[in-house]
Amino acid sequence: MGPQTGVGDPITKGWRAFGLAEDLDVDFHAVSRPFLVTALLAGCGAPRDDAYWWDQTLGARTAALLDLLATTEGMAPLGLQARCRQAACGALFEFDLSIEAVLDAVLQQEPADGPISSTLPDTRPLTLRKPTGRDLQDWCSRGLSSREQAVEAMVRSLVIEGEVRREDTPAIAGILAEADPLVAFGVSCTCPVCGAPAEVPVDLEAIALRRLRQRQHSLLREIHALASRYGWSEEQILAIPPARRARYLTLIEEGA
């Protein structure tokens, strides 16, 4: 089980690995990302309650999703790619991201429960709250027609106190990113070709969802191979521990 995490919010224990029969019914393409994340967290975590996970902050939801991925796959580093932004280089390079390091960094942060008190560049005081899954649900339902309208609606819904102008959006985004770093996560690295430093944005939520989708696809292939060879039912195959299933699959590949 991966470490229990939270970004100033309570994340409960009780994770199970993604890979039960019910997980084969998760449709990674039919629903929007916020609803998919909520379904996964409620299905594999505790409490098994959609409302609880909708009420968690975006950073806490992302940390929980990483915890689920670590519970499912272990703490092996994620292999990622980035492209150098130097016009004279543009090289594509690879780097590893440690889930354990990300979760440890979150755990070491000072808890930031409650409102976020800050100051805008012109010294205007501002009090914000962190966005939650419930906010995503609300924003998705509004059907806002443009990115500008969407951003303005998001920002205004998070302001508790203070005068906010349209031009304040970048500053407010920066304040929220600092308070909830997993939402706008980035990795500092160096291009191995030209040596230029780079800050690479990493969509942790998208990476976790992609890996879990791949796990679902691999599980379906395992079931298909074992059912085709031995005539076992899906229920019988899933009752076999993963390590032993892997040995059967190796025997099939070897033509035994």
Give the integer mean of the pLDDT values.
87
Q: Multimeric state of these chains?
A: single chain
- Give the helix tally: 10
Q: Roughly how many Å apart are the termini?
A: 34 Å
What fraction of the residues are assigned to beta strands by DSSP?
5-15%
Helix % is 40-55%
What does the main sheet amount to?
3 strands, antiparallel
Number of domains: 2
Care to count the β-strands? 7
Indicate the radius of gyration in whole angstroms: 21 Å
Main sheet strand line-up:
3-4-5
The stretches of 5 or more residues where confidence is low (pLDDT under 50) are 1-12
Q: Summarize the helix and strand pattern as letters.
A: HHHEEHEEHHEHEEHHH
Look at the helices and sheets and give the structural class.
alpha+beta
Shape: globular
Structural commentary:
With 256 residues, the chain is α+β, with helices and mostly antiparallel strands. The protein has 2 domains: 1-111 and 202-256, no CATH class; 116-179, no CATH class. It is 47% helix and 13% strand. It has helices at 33-44, 50-54, 58-73, 99-108, 133-142, 147-158, 169-179, 204-230, 234-238, 242-253; strands at residues 78-83, 92-97, 116-119, 125-128, 159-161, 186-190, 197-201. The protein has a 3-stranded antiparallel β-sheet. The longest helix is centred in the last third of the chain and has 27 residues, at 204-230. The protein is globular. Mean pLDDT is 87; it is low at 1-12.
